[in-house]
């Protein structure tokens, strides 16, 4: 296991960008842009075909070979649809919101290492656009900023359902970014750096997904909540909010939100690959072939993309398997399970690192033992049956529907939440209808008075 570097030595990234020129930066930036756009088109096809197979249906299979051109048709449909802006919206923020979401989504890949140093037109450069001593903090900051696109889009629409969706999104980000950040801090402790290239270099002998298994599991759940995917798509929730924050958007403005969601899925998958799955390093036993020849040249880009797609398919698989959570279940999972587990695991890793300063105990052995215990505890907490609440006396004393006297006035909130009327109960008069009837009675009274005055005038 690699020795933890001192803070001063660990500050600098291991990637060397000293040979880069402006046209190398342009080539890398254009590659990232094209890579993400093509990956989104492929993700749409893979998700539809994969979910189709899981649900025993063919999926897209008409447009192009194996339906590969279906995603292109969907993209053209979004471009050519009618674009409109609703009257009551705050026009500037309404248009700005989808651009904030998409712009922040494109920015994350800038610090993700796709591979080691290679030669591009005679220039030796890392397969990474840039790196910095606090690259992971940059990723967390950009992802947090991207949520402003969703929140502002729902607020600027000046509509009920988008506002509810944006409010849910804000609460969701606060809840699940805490657990995600806590799960990543243990990686910083054992790697000795926040630089993405140096974190990959620290996983030469062992991936952090194995040594830090509880943190990896917490991150996997948190990343699904962070990108608003099933079973955590509460900001959209078609069955409740029609489409949440995107209800009032159409054409390309809707497409920017749609694109940002899928790019963010690749972003969190790339972060999981970089911080937990060894980054661009080949998995064992491929890494042992020819003294690590598969970890040099352009081969590592293949391993990185394969790992990223593996995590991506995990999210697609989850969508085809699980149902949407209730909002209270969603918040309970974040605040009562993920955050406490991540916090306790962080303290345990810090204690292990402190003990290693005074003993020669192997870090791998200690982390594997502690990680195994935590993994068992997490499974027990997830499957432990919840305590059933005893029925309230008022609910138990409610008479049977068949013996409720006819004409009994109905109170929808007698049990604490709205319920439909039972047989024999009548709905109370609607306040709106009462006001309308009162206004109609007043109008009739005024009209009758005017008629009487006119008749008296004629006489």
Summarize the structure.
The chain has 459 residues and is mostly helical. It has helices spanning 7-10, 22-54, 70-80, 91-107, 135-156, 160-191, 196-201, 208-211, 213-226, 238-241, 251-276, 299-321, 327-356, 363-383, 393-396, 431-458, and strands at residues 115-120, 123-127, 408-409, 425-426.
Give a written overview of the molecule.
The N and C termini lie far apart (111 Å). The strands form 2 sheets. The chain has a two-stranded antiparallel sheet. A two-stranded parallel ribbon has the order 3-4. It is mainly alpha-helical and 459 residues long. α2 (22-54) crosses α11 (251-276), α5 (135-156) runs antiparallel to α6 and α6 packs parallel to α13 (327-356). The protein is globular and about 95 Å long. It contains 16 helices and 4 strands. It folds into 2 domains: 15-383, no CATH class; 401-440, no CATH class.
